[in-house]
Specification:
Order of helices and strands: HHEEHHHEHEHE
Shape: globular
Strand order of the largest sheet: 2-1-3-4-5
Mean pLDDT: 92
Radius of gyration: 16 Å
Oligomer: single chain
Helix content: 25-40%
Low-confidence stretches: none
Number of strands: 5
Strand content: 15-25%
Largest sheet: 5 strands, mixed
Length: 157
């Protein structure tokens, strides 16, 4: 196979890491939205995360969703949830194993909420690639102010 044909067949790095999100998010235990995150540095996966209850606690699919019971719309009252976000879990996983994510890229299923945006900023992540929109304009403002490259993913075809 010629080199130019081979380049057409291979996915771009963004396509590659975004496709891995589809598998990561399947571990989610959230009943409202499955979200995955993959942190990458130097084209290597550093950590992954998905949304769900903290380790050792009952999952929402077992006991019900507090946000559903209280009729809380997406993007509001983040504190009224048993779950931890995918981005947070990925950042925590890197910290638990002593792996620096400074200057890394995080690939996420949805644009980050404001809580995740603040963690992304302080963790030193420099690029966020996402596919779905999350209703949080403050998050976008903070990421832009911090000089983080926020990029909506579009598959290369």
């Amino acid at each position: 196979m010629s080199q130019s044909i081979m380049q057409d067949v291979r996915p771009s790095w963004d396509d590659y890491f975004m496709s891995i999100l589809d598998t990561v998010k399947e571990r989610s235990t959230c009943v409202r939205r499955k979200v995955g995150a993959v942190i990458v540095k130097d084209k290597r996966i550093i950590a992954t995360g998905y949304n769900g209850a903290p380790s050792g606690l009952k999952h929402c699919y077992e006991i019900g969703c507090l946000r559903e019971k209280l009729n809380i719309p997406s993007g509001q009252n983040h504190e009224l949830c048993r779950g931890i976000h995918a981005e947070q879990n990925a950042i925590i996983q890197a910290a638990m194993y002593g792996v620096s994510i400074n200057e890394a890229t995080i690939y996420v299923t949805c644009s980050p909420c404001v809580q995740c945006a603040k963690m992304i900023i302080n963790a030193g992540i420099k690029r966020v690639v996402y596919c779905g929109e999350y209703p949080d304009k403050l998050s976008e403002e903070l990421l832009n102010e911090a000089g983080i490259n926020l990029q909506k993913y579009t598959k290369n075809e």
